[in-house]
Amino acid sequence: MAYKFRFAIVSDLHIALPHTIWQHPSRFHWVEVSIHALESVLEHLTQLELDFLLIPGDLTQHGEAENHSWLSERLSKLPFPVYVVPGNHDVPVLRADSQSISFRDFPYYYRKFGYNQPEQSYYICELMPTVKLIGLNSNSFDYEGKLLGRLDQHQLEWLKGVLANTGDDLVLVMVHHNVIEHLPNQSQHPMVQNYILQNASELLQVLARHGVKLIFTGHLHVQDVAQSHGIYEITTGSLVSYPHPYRILEFHQDNYGREWLQFLSYRVESLPEFPNFQHSSREWMRDRSLPFLVRFLSLPPFNLSPLQAEELAPSFKDFWATVACGDALLDYPEFSTHLRQCFQRYGAISSSGIPTLIDNHSTLLLSNL
């Protein structure tokens, strides 16, 4: 029988109560607007007939207990189910310190939001008959206590076991770190490789083997849709970074057994203190982008000298904001062919040179039975 459901995605909330905010002059995260931005989104979402809401990690500024408690309480008041997974900012330390909760504490704050077995940092739950959600934990620690973006082997074995028992059910997967590359050479580039799982290829093979078609991620603060192994990964930008996006999606299976996912993207357009919020936010990002751009231009594929990078960086101050919006069409005709081609690789252009604008609004055919 044909079926459909409707849900939303809001990612990388970085919730920070005012008295918990710590200053960092170069951060892109505009955490000062986190609560107002979330309330703006929830006001919209509660007017819709949603079946559930997904939040793929970085729920808090930096794992503060007060921020986790506030968010858990706020989400419990919504008229639809909510499911979360931890991001690197939610569990930055293995053991609790003066600022952050411990890694093992996280599920206990979110027992109503997927973690009905809080002794475990990942879960599977039934969204509705024949539809399952798997929430994965992409945070692990090495022997020195350094946080890594990686699925540990025990979790991978658990995942293989639960997928083997899902039968013909539709399985959605949510995890914080990217599994498929959303930027050129993402898994190797020193500035963005930490945004993709270290063992992404292994996870991707497991999911493909069991017919998973959809992964929902965050972390990168970019609106993007990527595909590999017959799987679509939809990553959603941050609520505290330009352009402050969120998504509303509808999945349906038609009478011929074909599965479709349609989605629309929205932005927080204004806030009480910032009636021209989008402009203010873009300026916030532009003003903090120069150190990022200087380093970016000095690395492959650009390979500019430090002096060249410093000279050219101001000309590209809008680059990352444009990429973050999704569906970017990048061209800088005033620069060399090499520079133009390097930047164009970060745009929404297929290998055949044709624009593929699917990052914000699209209808994807997931199967054609």
UniProtKB/TrEMBL annotation:
Keyword Metal-binding: yes
Family annotation (InterPro entries): Calcineurin-like_PHP, CNP_phosphodiesterase-III, Metallo-depent_PP-like, Pesterase_cyn
Domain Calcineurin-like phosphoesterase: 5-222
Superkingdom of origin: Bacteria
Transmembrane segments: none
Entries under Pfam families matching the protein: Metallophos (PF00149)
Molecular-function GO terms, alphabetical: hydrolase activity; metal ion binding
Keywords linked to the UniProt accession: Hydrolase, Iron, Metal-binding
Name of the molecule in the record: Calcineurin-like phosphoesterase domain-containing protein
Organism phylogeny: Bacteria, Bacillati, Cyanobacteriota, Cyanophyceae, Nostocales
